[in-house]
Design brief:
The protein has helices spanning 42-48, 53-63, 67-72, 75-81, 85-88, 108-120, 139-145, 147-160, and strands at 32-36, 94-100, 129-135. The chain is an alpha/beta fold. Helix 6 (108-120) links the parallel strand 2 and strand 3.
């Protein structure tokens, strides 16, 4: 049986403060999020790849046939429509979205549109750092080889460190 909540598969799941029904206690929200080669707009993913039924299949297999559910599960959409990242993630200090122009599976628009939506919220005045980091390599290379992924992780950690302790 499907839950009433739309499933989500994004780095923003980390801000939900809900580890599931069997969790012994709530967990603390993270102070930083790194999204790598992510899909942040499910409808946009399908629409940009209309020539391939594979993208439609991926989205419907994970989120069902109802596009309203896709929108609920897409952070770009919920940020543009109603949510405030500053309100839902007050602990947030760093948001890094890492994407490769060479990805081949996920288009750059996923990353740039998400950061546009985040920027509309006025969060930067609250002191959070929002960055787009460009990686090099194909989608699977990023994950399999790990060099670019490691660089994104290190960069994100360095942004969280106090300025006096950052690596030069």
């Amino acid at each position: 049986m499907r839950s009433q909540e739309a499933p989500s598969a994004t780095p923003f799941d980390a801000t939900s403060n809900n580890a599931g029904p069997n969790a012994p206690e709530p967990f603390l929200n993270p102070v930083g999020i790194l999204g790598v080669e992510g899909v942040y707009d499910l409808v946009g993913l399908r629409d940009r790849h209309f020539e391939s039924s594979i993208y439609q299949d991926i989205v419907t297999n994970a989120f069902g046939l109802d596009e309203r559910e896709w929108r609920k599960a897409s952070p770009t959409t919920w940020l543009l429509e109603k949510a405030s990242l500053a309100e839902s993630w007050p602990e947030g200090r760093v948001l890094v979205i890492a994407q490769s122009h060479e990805d081949g599976l996920v288009e750059d628009d996923q990353a740039t549109e998400l950061l546009h939506a985040v920027g509309l919220d006025g969060n930067r005045s609250a002191g959070r750092k929002d960055e787009l980091m460009w990686l090099r390599g194909l989608h699977d290379q990023i994950w399999e080889e790990g060099h670019e992924l490691a660089a994104a992780i290190l960069h994100s950690i360095c942004l969280l460190a106090p300025p006096s302790s950052r690596l030069s």
